[in-house]
Structures are given as structure tokens and as C-alpha cells.
TrEMBL record:
Cell location: Cell membrane
E.C. designation(s): 3.6.5.n1
Source superkingdom: Bacteria
Family, per entry: Belongs to the TRAFAC class translation factor GTPase superfamily. Classic translation factor GTPase family. LepA subfamily.
Name assigned to this protein: Elongation factor 4
Family matches, as InterPro entries: EF-4, EFG_III/V, EFG_V-like, EFTu-like_2, G_TR_CS, LepA_C_sf, LepA_CTD, LepA_IV
PROSITE patterns membership: G_TR_1, G_TR_2
Entry membrane topology: Peripheral membrane protein
Organism expressing this protein natively: Fodinibacter luteus
């Protein structure tokens, strides 16, 4: 297809504003999926995605369309819909010339609408404003057209009004995409340069890589080079998705499709990387490549210690399809053998955990998620801490923690509540704008550690669910942080060590000591629970002693009954975890880690 007849676009929206439904309708109207084969949310392939209604992996579908008798090819590129995947979203947008900005006509603009719009603007995309769900009785298209027009600087009448559900307005929207989105431009005679915007592991075919060709062309059987790693591969297959993979004779300037090289690990085909031709290589890669960087770490432990090898195997498998997942073995006094895992963010963590439990049948305990700290010691040594229990004691000169830029959207009556929350979370207000008389956008920098803790839940509860939040990494900052250890009879329980701001150390210590006092059964002797910063104890509770005599109730006689009871007690002991001489049922640790 000549570039003049191609339009590459994506749909960007806040979660639940109807992106998948509109995409389905487009597939149907362009005849790519017939009505009978149409299953809801065709583009979301993974079960978890469908159940959670979120899109994790982007894909691209080629749709034939006609405008005034002239055939065109529309490439619709799907974008992941959550903050954890901002980098992947930005690469998907970079593969497009236009974006449909979809807003629920009953909800209006939300935080992700803005975050996505900013990303689209950074990538210089043509933005088409669209109000969706106009079939809803609660829809207020006039009101939100004003808001949307004010935001992107157009007339309210320029906003399209559609319903992905009924199909109203979708055909004119497809026409508008052809009219308004620029055709791709590139140098057909230059050495090939194609950008990878997604890469998915398929059990049968190995890694399937989605690319957008910028210059030159890629053809079957050629040898290609991944420019970030210099690795070379043979192009076993190249084609387009419509809606199933269709192998073809190659891809030229502006085209979007997939390629297969036989590699088995998505790390060999990285999002953002540039693919070129070995025989005639490009001199420089396309801009914007970044290594995926885990932001949040958590220990994952099997509930049953004998599942450890299965957990390792499951992680090895998941990794094939997840370039951002990292892990290494970890041993915990309290929780046994497991893995310290790194994730892009909380949602990523949850998804991985859920897949491990669901697809691999594992039962897991995860420790409180933490961020990565850069520690400089007095002697100048630099240490990267991904596990709070490994935070160095002694001569720490400086600790740096990651921060994020957060965008919060909410009805203006909640400004006070949001400010209070953000202040308590060590946030700094960057600015505030009214989108309309009753809706406000607030921008903050916040430590990622505070956001990871329970920020979103608190934001939702303080605004009755009306606030929406989006954030992106924004470098790091020096902070006054300390490690709080929890000790049982003088022994540190590693799983409960936490790095917190100096002012919050006391609160954390009191809370954890109190929690454990409730959860750990009484022992034969008194057990002190302490919270300490270094050698300094900041909180203390005592578990009082009891004398547990199982034989007390059996007066004399029945020796077999006595033996049974003693055996039962022994079995009970075996399951206990020993911290020093204190016996703790594993459930106590689990409860302390999960309850709030
Ligand atoms: P994520 O993938 O989670 O970001 O969601 P999405 O933006 O893809 O939204 P999705 O298409 O899953 O739609 C969210 C909900 O809105 C679903 O319950 C849809 O049935 C409903 N919905 C989507 N479009 C329309 C519409 O035009 N009218 C009505 N009434 N409901 C719609």
C-alpha cells in the first residue's frame, strides 16, 4: 500500500470510557470481523484482561475502508490503559499519526484522558475529540463538548458524538480519521527502520513482534538487526493482522504489521527498539528507546514451601512474555524461600501475582511493596536497595527515593480533602486548573513510595470515588528516610522491615507491634515485640506468657488418649515458624502482611 492511502491511529481514553467497545464496532463496520464471529472485546485476548476489563498488551489491526470511492487502509493500534504501562503507551502513540480521544459523555474528562492527551501531543499526533456513549440517558454531550473543546482548543461542534454500543456516529468518525489524520511519510529508498511498539510471546510461534515501518522496507527471509542489542535474526515471517495474522511479502513505509524471527523471549525483541536490515543497515536508530525499569519490588513466597520449584518455573515462563518482570531468589526468616520481584507498578504486580495463582495454581504471600532506594554511604559507596531488610545500617550520607508527577482530577468541592491527603503523603502542589466551574485538575509531585502505599484507596474514599489519578515517573529526590525493624524477642523479623520517612517511623512501629501482638499466640514465656530504628527502640508491646499444658485435662488413666494429644501438639509445632525461640504460626505473618 502506498503511504498516501494509509492512516495509522489509536484510540486513547480513560479506563471504562469505552475504547474496546468502539474498537470492536470499527472492526465490524470495516468488515474485518463478521457479525457472527464478533465476540465482545475482540482485541483483549487474555482472560485476565477480559475479566478485569483492562488492556495490557497493545496490538494492531488493519482495516480496509473507502472514502469517496478511494480505498484506504486504516491501521488501528491498541494502547494499554494503565499508568504502569506509560512507556508502552508512548511507543504505541509514536507508531501513529493520529489519535481518537474518547471521552464518556456521561463522565467527562478524567485523569487518564489528560495523561494520554499529553502523550499524544508530545508525539505530535492529530487529535480527534470524540464523545462516546451518547445513547446513555445520563449523557451530557453538550456540557462535555465544551470541556473537551476547551481542553484541546477547538469548537464544541468539532467534537464527534458516537455510541460504540449502538454504532451511531462511528461511520462518520472513520471518514474523519481518513480526512484529518495525516498520511505517514518516510524515505522509501533509505535503509530500513521500523519501530517495535509491542512484542508478545506466543506458545506456538515464539515471539510475535509488532512494528511500524518508518523508512525503507522489510521483507521475508532477510536478516534483520535489533539496533539496541545488535542481535541479528532471520525474518521468518512478516505480515499484517486483520484480524488474524496474514503473512505477506513485506512491509513498506508507513505500514504496520508483525514479524516473527523464532526468538523465544520478549527481551530479544524490545518495545521501543529499532529494527533494520543487516545487508543495508540504518546508521542511527529511531529516538525514544528505553530499557524497562522496575519501579516497585515485592517478595513473593509460596504458602507451601514445597511449591518453591514450581514458583521458579512459573516465573521463568511468565518472563518470556514480560520484558519488565525481574526476580531473584530471596530467603526470609519469616516466610522461607521465595523471590524478590521487580514490577513496573502496583497493577503490574497484581497482574503477575494473579497469573501465578490462576494459571499456575500457586498460593502466594507477597510482602508490602516497596520502591528502589539509592543510598550513598559516608565513604562514597553507592548501594541500590530493592529490599528494605537490606537497607544498610550505619554511616549513611544520603538516601534518594523515586518521585512521580501526579495528575488528579476531581469535582472542585474535594480540593481541600485532596490537598490534605497529598500533604500527608509528602506531596508538593505544582499547579491547579479548572476544567470547568466544578471540575479541577491538580498536579503534584509525590514520593512513589507514598503512592504505592495506599494513596489510591485513600483518594477514592476521600472523594467518594469521584477523583481520578494518573502519574508518571519524575526522577528522584533526597529524603530523610530510615529503616524500621520489627523484633520478636530481640530477633528481627525480616518481612516486616520497612523504609519510611523519619516522621512516620513511630507510627509504623506502633502499628506493626500492635498488629503482631494480636496475631501471635501466647508462648510459654513472655515475648517482647519491639520496633526499632537502628539500635533505638521506638515502640514496644508484650505478649504475656501462658503455660500450655495439653495433658491438664486428662486425669490419669487413658494413656492412648494422652499420646494422641501429645502427637497432635507435635504436629502443630512442625508447622510453626521459629523466630529465635518464639513459635509463630505462618498465618500470623500472612495476616500481618495482608490485613490493614
Ligand atoms: P478499558 O479497556 O478497561 O480501558 O475499558 P474500555 O475503555 O475499553 O471500555 P469498554 O469498551 O470495556 O467499556 C466499558 C463499559 O462501558 C462496558 O460496560 C461497556 O459495555 C460500556 N460501553 C462502552 N461503550 C458504550 C456505549 O457507547 N454506550 C453504552 N451505553 N455503554 C457503553
Amino acid at each position: 500500500t502506498p503511504p498516501e492511502a494509509i492512516r495509522n491511529f489509536c484510540i486513547i481514553a480513560h479506563i471504562d470510557h469505552g475504547k474496546s467497545t468502539l474498537a470492536d464496532r470499527m472492526l465490524q463496520m470495516t468488515g474485518v470481523v463478521d457479525d457472527r464471529a464478533m465476540r465482545a472485546q475482540y482485541l483483549d485476548r487474555m482472560d485476565i484482561e477480559r475479566e478485569r476489563g483492562i488492556t495490557i498488551k497493545s496490538q494492531a489491526v488493519r482495516m480496509p475502508w473507502e472514502l469517496e470511492g478511494a480505498p484506504v487502509v486504516l491501521n488501528m493500534i491498541d494502547t494499554p490503559g494503565h499508568v504502569d504501562f506509560t512507556y508502552e503507551v508512548s511507543r504505541s502513540l509514536a507508531a501513529c499519526e493520529g489519535a481518537v480521544l474518547l471521552v464518556d459523555a456521561a463522565q467527562g474528562i478524567e485523569a487518564q484522558t489528560l495523561a494520554n492527551l499529553y502523550l499524544a501531543m508530545e508525539n505530535e499526533l492529530t487529535v480527534i475529540p470524540v464523545l462516546n456513549k451518547i445513547d446513555l440517558p445520563a449523557a451530557q454531550p453538550e456540557k462535555y463538548a465544551e470541556e473537551l473543546a476547551g481542553l484541546i482548543g477547538c469548537e464544541p461542534d468539532d467534537c464527534f458524538r458516537v455510541s460504540g454500543k449502538t454504532g451511531v456516529g462511528v461511520e462518520p468518525l472513520l471518514d474523519a480519521i481518513v480526512r484529518q489524520v495525516p498520511a505517514p511519510t518516510g524515505d522509501a529508498d533509505a535503509p530500513a527502520r521500523a519501530m517495535i511498539f509491542d512484542s508478545v510471546y506466543d506458545t506456538y510461534r515464539g515471539v510475535v513482534t509488532y512494528v511500524r515501518v518508518v523508512d525503507g522496507n522489510l521483507n521475508p527471509r532477510e536478516r534483520i538487526v535489533m539496533m539496541s542489542t545488535k542481535a541479528t535474526h532471520e525474518l521468518l515471517e512478516i505480515g499484517v493482522i486483520s484480524p488474524e495474522p496474514v503473512p505477506g511479502k513485506g512491509l513498506g513505509v508507513g505500514e504496520v504489521g508483525y514479524l516473527i524471527t523464532g526468538v523465544k523471549d520478549v527481551r530479544q525483541s524490545r518495545v521501543g527498539d529499532t529494527v533494520t536490515n543487516l545487508a543495508k543497515p540504518a546508521s542511527a536508530p529511531l529516538g525514544g528507546y528505553r530499557d524497562p525499569k522496575p519501579m516497585v519490588f515485592s517478595g513473593l513466597f509460596p504458602l507451601d514451601g514445597s511449591d518453591y520449584p514450581d514458583l521458579r518455573e512459573a516465573l521463568d515462563k511468565l518472563k518470556l512474555n514480560d520484558a519488565a518482570l525481574v526476580y531473584e531468589p530471596e530467603t526470609s526468616v519469616a516466610l522461607g524461600f521465595g523471590f524478590r520481584c521487580g514490577f513496573l507498578g502496583l497493577l503490574h504486580l497484581e497482574i503477575v501475582r494473579e497469573r501465578l495463582e490462576r494459571e499456575f495454581g500457586l498460593e502466594l504471600i507477597s510482602t508490602q511493596p516497596n520502591v528502589v532506594y539509592d543510598v550513598t554511604m559516608d565513604d562514597g559507596t553507592e548501594i541500590v536497595v530493592t529490599n528494605p531488610s537490606e537497607f544498610p545500617g550505619g554511616k549513611v550520607a544520603e538516601v534518594r527515593e523515586p518521585k512521580v508527577r501526579a495528575t488528579i482530577l476531581a469535582p472542585s468541592e474535594y480540593i481541600g480533602a485532596i490537598m490534605e491527603l497529598c500533604q500527608g503523603k509528602r506531596g508538593t502542589l505544582l499547579g491547579m486548573d479548572y476544567l470547568s466551574a466544578e471540575r479541577v485538575e491538580m498536579r503534584y509531585t509525590l514520593p512513589l513510595a507514598e503512592v504505592v502505599f495506599d494513596f489510591f484507596d485513600q483518594l477514592k474514599s476521600r472523594t467518594r470515588g469521584y477523583a481520578s489519578l494518573d502519574y508518571e515517573p519524575d526522577g528522584d529526590q533526597v529524603a530523610d528516610l530510615v529503616k524500621v525493624d520489627i523484633l520478636l524477642q530481640g530477633e528481627t523479623v525480616d518481612a516486616f522491615s520497612a523504609i519510611v520517612h523519619k516522621d512516620k517511623a513511630y507510627g509504623y512501629g506502633v502499628m506493626m507491634a500492635g498488629k503482631l501482638k494480636e496475631l501471635i499466640p501466647r508462648q510459654q514465656f513472655e515475648v517482647p515485640i519491639q520496633a526499632a530504628v537502628g539500635a533505638r527502640v521506638i515502640a514496644r508491646e508484650n505478649i504475656r506468657a501462658i503455660r500450655k499444658d495439653v495433658l491438664a485435662k486428662c486425669y490419669g488413666g487413658d494413656i492412648s488418649r494422652k499420646r494422641k494429644l501429645l502427637e497432635k501438639q507435635k504436629a502443630g509445632k512442625k508447622r510453626m515458624k521459629n523466630i529465635g525461640s518464639v513459635e509463630v504460626p505462618p498465618e500470623a505473618f500472612i495476616a500481618a502482611l495482608t490485613s490493614d
